[in-house]
Design brief:
seven-stranded antiparallel beta sheet, mainly beta, three-stranded antiparallel beta sheet
């Protein structure tokens, strides 16, 4: 059902875009699920993120988006480090834990990575980066990171997916 009709195809103005409808439409794009971690002023930070993407191989760059009101922003000044932990399908509980903000690091196994940001030891892989740039993006900030370390922790396992507002197992095309 189309909630807001455009006068001509593709010509809705920003005022006519219903945020709930837009969120539903964006939710139709499947993503993976990551936990981004950092160490800042002796404190560990972590947050569940599905807006992660590779940006460039040469130079090696990644990006993710973070809400402007996130307390995690303080740990992400230019030059600081963070680690992207790519979650496996059986790590749904870890994704939920880091989305909740309650005693995150007391309930997971991790080791300090390069720059001190935690590597979740049961994740599929990790990418450690230095913050290269922050770009304003509406109610979010786009964090661009220069890759400084990588690791494939498990060759087995399948990634945790996110689709239509829920975490899901990804099924291979048969």
């Amino acid at each position: 059902m189309v909630v807001n009709q455009a006068t001509e195809f593709g010509e809705r103005t920003a005022e006519l875009i219903d945020q709930r409808e837009l969120r539903t439409i964006f939710g139709r794009f499947a993503t993976g699920v990551t936990v981004i971690t950092a160490k800042y002023s002796g404190e560990l930070f972590g947050v569940t993120v599905n807006s992660f993407a590779s940006l460039s191989l040469d130079p090696p760059l990644v990006l993710f988006c973070l809400h402007n009101r996130s307390s995690f922003r303080a740990a992400l000044e230019v030059g600081s480090s963070f680690t992207v932990n790519i979650l496996a399908e059986e790590q749904r509980d870890i994704a939920g834990l880091f989305a909740s903000g309650v005693d995150r690091f007391l309930k997971v196994n991790s080791l300090p990575g390069r720059g001190g940001s935690p590597v979740l030891t049961n994740s599929l892989a990790y990418v450690t980066c230095e913050v290269a740039q922050q770009v304003a993006g509406g109610d979010h900030v786009i964090i661009i990171g220069k890759v400084v370390d990588i690791g494939l922790l498990r060759r087995d396992g399948r990634p945790l997916g996110f689709f239509a507002g829920t975490m899901q197992k990804l099924n291979p095309y048969q």
